[in-house]
Amino acid sequence: MVDKKDISLFQPRKIKDDDIYGKEGYILNLIKPNIYQFYSRGAGCHVYLIIGEDLNVLIDTGIISKFNSLNYLLTTEIGLKIEDIDLVINTHEHFDHISSNAYLRCPIAAHRWAATKIQHTDELITKGKKWGVDLSNLKINIWLEDRNIFDIGNVFLKIIETPGHTSGCICIYEPYKHYIFSGDTLFKGATTNIYESGSISEYINSLQILNTLRIREFFPSHGKYVLGEENVKNEIESSIENAMMELDTFINKLKSKPLEEVKPPPSLYRREEEDL
Ligand SMILES: [Zn+2]
Known about the structure:
The chain is α/β, with parallel strands linked by helices and 276 residues long. It is 28% helix and 22% strand. The chain has an 8-stranded mixed sheet. The longest helix has 28 residues, at 229-256. The radius of gyration is 19 Å and the shape is globular. The site of zinc ion has 5 residues, from loops.
């Protein structure tokens, strides 16, 4: 039993750099007494493991090329087998978040708009082939909607619909402990890209909804996490500001120029390289 004082004193720390797969593998961090982060460098996304009193939950399964690293660190450092994972929640339908789902035998949950794309192998949205990943025959067992809650034992995971980056994006919020897994919706020091099926105005609205929640810490799928209520608020508000600016720029150009001259659309949509 960890008392409140100990939780407030808890310092996130690195457990291990993957010494077998090197930079192709994850860095394992302990970010809370019961939460591990598999930090991905380069291709792929971070994977989070929450050890509840009743269930072990993975937030995303990561890119398939890093699955061996996930399995290795899970087994040797945490002492769990992949069979000990009771539930997967995918933050959205992009290949780098879902492709290792194929190795899991537990129920897999995703927002229903993500589930439809994953179950239809909608490559335009999920982008597997472009990155050499086969996403056929993946199944979503639990189709989520806004405000669904998983009680995993001393941890509640509340689903917050946050469409924008894609239509099926969610954030996963602990409403009593006030931390959130922000997927590709909220990053530190960067505003997300808008991909096929996504929408910049929905993205702005999603951030505005996040801004009404009390959030002490957010854990994104790429880049660094952010601690401290004030810092979280600043990141949300600067993303809202950037997104609004991009949308305004686009609309103003549309008003003053012929349509052909307005393309390409605002830089949130313009991608030099894929960053999912
Ligand atoms: Zn993405």
